[in-house]
Amino acid sequence: MESALKVTPVKIEDEMRSSFIDYSxxxxxxxxxxxVRDGLKPVHRRILYAMYDLKNFFNRPYLKxxxxxxxxxxxxxxxxxxxxxxxxxxxxxxxxxRYPVIQGQGNFGSIDGDSPAAMRYTEVRLQEITNLxxxxxxxxxxxxxxxxxxxxxxxxxxxxxxxxLLLNGASxxxxxxxxxxxPHNLTELVDGLLHLIEKPKASIEELMQFVKGPDFPTAGxxxxxxxxxxxxxxxxGSVQIRAVAKFEETKSGKDLIVVTELPYQVNKAKLLERIxxxxxxxxxxxxxxLRDESAQEDIRVVIELKKGENPEILLNNLYNLTPxxxxxxxxxxxxxxxxxxxxxxKQILESFYQHRREIVLRRTAYDLKKAEERAHILLGLxxxxxxxxxxxxxxxxxxxxxxxxxxxxxxxxxxxxxAKAILEMRLARLTGLEREKIISEYEEIMKIIKDLTDIxxxxxxxxxxxxxxxxxxxxxxxxxxxTQLMAAADDFTMESLVADEEVAVSITHHGYVKRTPLSQxxxxxxxxKGRKGMQTRDEDxxxxxxxxxxxxxxLCFTNQGRVHELKVYRVPEAELAGKGKHFATxxxxxxxxxxxxxxxxxxxxxxxxxxxxxxxxxxxxxxxMAYSNIRQxxxxxxxxxxxxxxxxxxxxxxxxxxxxxTQQGKAIRFNEEETxxxxxSARGVTGIRFGEENDSVIGMTVINGEGSxxxxxxxxxxxxxxxEEYPAQSRGGKGVFTIKVSERNGxxxxxxxxxxxxxxxxxxxxxxxxxxxxxxxxxIGRLTQGVKLVTVEDSERVVGFAKITTLEGxxx
Length: 812
What we know:
By secondary structure, this protein is of the alpha+beta class. The model is unreliable at 522-537 and 807-812 (pLDDT under 50).
């Protein structure tokens, strides 16, 4: 017996292509993307319709969530119960929805990421505003289609009075596309719609005067309008959202950062974990305690700081390193006429407006049909009461109801419906008062028919009805914005919060830095004992102090040839005895990268240069303006060979003289005019040639006026030589001796131009610090070995020294 089956060969690639396209369209249309008209995905629409069908309204008792989920799965949505319950829960969460459409009773999760209770424990009902999503659904306002098993009908869209797509937003991932629409403020959306209705040719810029930007349920601040404008103009954009924080102070004088509003969709518990992790890894310093004092709807995250910490700067670091500042990528993709489209603000509002016009027209047509049906019956009743005796007599003489109905139809030209209504009329309606009511009702319904017909024939009246309903919506449910709109973070800087006062910036050999108001340093009289200066570790010394102002820039050059810009107000403020913070906490340094030169810049002007010298003897001069716009993660300051490193940088006027010294005791003096200006990333030219193979540059000094050159060796010997003993040479020479390098002296560790009033602080590898004045070091010739400045042990050596110009009232 031959098989009745017919086998048709199909290429596997064709079948895969066809099946995947079918699957993709199913996901796009039936699962992942919302409809532009009611802003709902199928699962949300089915949940709300099932609750409506169960009369689970806001003024009725709650029903178990499990009852709703079971109804949705059994009747409309043949998918997993967890996916349906998750969708239901989200519509009830006040931290997820700007205007929740479901009212929940029980545990529906929290902003900390806690899971909701099982569906058998929670109860739900529709919110009052949700009635407007379903209003008039029973008046043939929307199309219905068969459910999955063709046993019931379900709405293909809701007749929504509210612009729900923008009101509560939507997110979803389809195949090859995704959507991410933020929530908005109801009052702003209605204002924008009313303006668009009044002026259909209004531009998106005009609409943005009313719809100012997303309005998130968790509030927060949106930084800058560029991302909002891009999203509204093109459908795509990204907005930066910041938490809202305020500063408080404890009774003991400690500063507190109190976070009261979080960015949208930020998990509070994970945020706290991230901050604690940064503190543990020492990527953020200055935090002594972190606690969550939130209560139900009120967010209160308290960050306690060490005394003397600048809360503004620390908060800025938290914005950069934690979800306290996060971005929301807007991608306004929705189904329009059954097809996915990327829509701008005006297109979404126009689609909703056209949907409302269609709903009003369909509702009016339905009401007109019902009114005409009622008028038809009332007309028959009116004829009956006007001919009451004859009608009653006809009915009495008829053998049965069918004969009576036929005689009424024939005698009074009635329809079957009218005759049946007369026969079913109660005797009580034959009284005089009831007869008057029938006539009055007929006249009234004829007026209604006339009015409804006029609405259908007059587009202006349809517009007026839509406008009136929107105004009522705004009046009843409109509220103020929750999310603030602020200037962009790049435009709104800390400079506006910090006074531009004079400060002293102190830097240690190991890279710790602080700033101290000059008023504190000058608080003592001249000749006093002074105050204790920067508190350093045993193996650290203050390398440099200079006077600048809070709004000026510090150019921080590193050994790896990079430069970072640091505003002075970002340097932690500390008392004179304070230790300060390491550069690594203030700038994004790489591993093994350290700051070797810090140059204060009051103003980036033409005619000034940055001169750099490397370990291999290269020197480079670059216009200061090349460093006027440095990125957050720094810039390349000069190109370095693999085995080379940056030793020092200085600011010059283009005509300064420079001395470069090597560890073998050589130094060369030449005018910087011999070095032509180069680009920022150039390597430079030869500054000094080495006479010894193992020689390298250990320092550079720019000559300013008169003075002497101090040289110090690693075994604690050094000397001071008059400046005139260093003859001017051409760049690139081998130089002359600055100090004799011997077994006794050891290699040179540094040179500096000094003046008699300067102080010197010398540090050894054992952490021993010795301080003396320049006057204590006698002047001797270049070719001598020098004298002992510091006593070092056999295993000890000098690792550096610093020249400190004493500030009035401070002891360094």
